[in-house]
Structures are given as C-alpha cells and as structure tokens.
Design brief:
The chain is of the alpha+beta class. It contains five helices and eight strands. The N and C termini lie close together (12 Å).
C-alpha cells in the first residue's frame, strides 16, 4: 500500500473527540507535561521512566522541531480536556521510513486514566493516520505487563499480532489495517 501524502501535513495538527482536544504542544504546557512525565506511577511501563525536568524540556523542544519538518514524519501531540483545556496527556504518531506504516502511542496523567480517554485518543490518531495520511497499517506497542494499554489498543480496534521478548521486558505488538475500500 502506498501513503497518500508521505507525511505532508504542513498545518498545525488539531482535532477533537467527544472529550479531548489533540493538538500541538503550546507555550505553558511544560508544567502539566512534566507533572505526569515525572510521575513514576504513570511512567512505570515506559523505557525512559520517569522524566527529569531536563528530559521533559528536551522532549517538548524535540516536539517543536518535529512540527517544523517537511515532510513531517513524527507527531508529538498534547491531549487536553475539551471541558477546561487542561493538558492530561501526550499522543505520538510516527511514520516508519521502511514501509507505509506508522505507530502510535498514548500516555495519560493519572487523573485521566481509566476513563476511556486513551481509547478515544488512539481512535482519533488512527483516523488521522488513515484519513489524513492515507496509511495502510498502524501499529501500537506496549509492555506485556501493561494490561491497561493492551486493553486500550484492543478497544481502539487493534489486534495483537505477536509478543516479542526484549532485554528487560516483553513487548506486545498490536496493529490495525485500513478498512477495504477506504479512501
């Protein structure tokens, strides 16, 4: 399958779900971002856990640099509540250079977990990948111990393809293929 536009998406990304606004990171996002990125409970299944202030600042700077690239291959986005605009997570969507696929990720602050917001964000990212970028397949990965993320990926419509053993923990690889006949 071919990509529709190979990551060409020059306008700032912003889309809404029933309860979330998925958008580019903005001025003023450091404190809430670092709040959950430095939380051991939130980051316990991540390889780079938890973030120092310096790591959080570097991540946000990298997100800004990626936003400026054309064609764009990596989207590091903020997830904010529609009701009050509070930043409660981050979503990433990354194109693969090897084939017409991408992978997504979602991290949510504790106060936003167990409310279906991760599934809502993942479904929105899938729509972005299939509709805006014309991708054929999207992947999601999670630590085998992270049952909440596995359930989120499953509820978003992904299927478990395989489990790989890593040096420190196993990785579940989930995927979904664009529906036949989709534009």
């Amino acid at each position: 399958m071919e990509r529709k536009n190979s990551g060409s998406c020059a306008a700032p990304v912003r889309f809404e779900t029933a309860r979330l606004v998925i958008r580019e990171f903005a001025e003023g996002d450091f404190a809430p971002f670092h709040g959950f990125a430095s939380d051991m409970e939130v980051m316990r299944y991540m390889q780079d856990r938890p973030c120092t202030e310096e790591q959080s600042a570097k991540f946000l700077a990298m997100a800004g640099r990626e936003r400026e690239k054309e064609p764009r291959a990596n989207w590091y986005l903020a997830a904010a509540l529609r009701e009050d605009g509070a930043l409660v997570g981050t979503c990433n969507f990354n194109l693969s250079s090897e084939f017409p696929d991408a992978f997504l990720g979602v991290i949510l602050a504790r106060r936003a977990q167990s409310r279906g917001l991760g599934t809502e964000a993942a479904r929105a990212l899938l729509g972005f990948g299939f509709d805006a970028l014309g991708l054929g397949k999207v992947w999601g990965f999670c630590n085998v111990a992270n049952t909440a993320s596995a359930r989120m990926l499953e509820k978003a419509g992904m299927t478990l393809e395989r489990i790989d053993e890593g040096p420190h923990f196993g990785i579940m690889r989930w995927s979904v293929v664009r529906a036949e006949g989709a534009a």
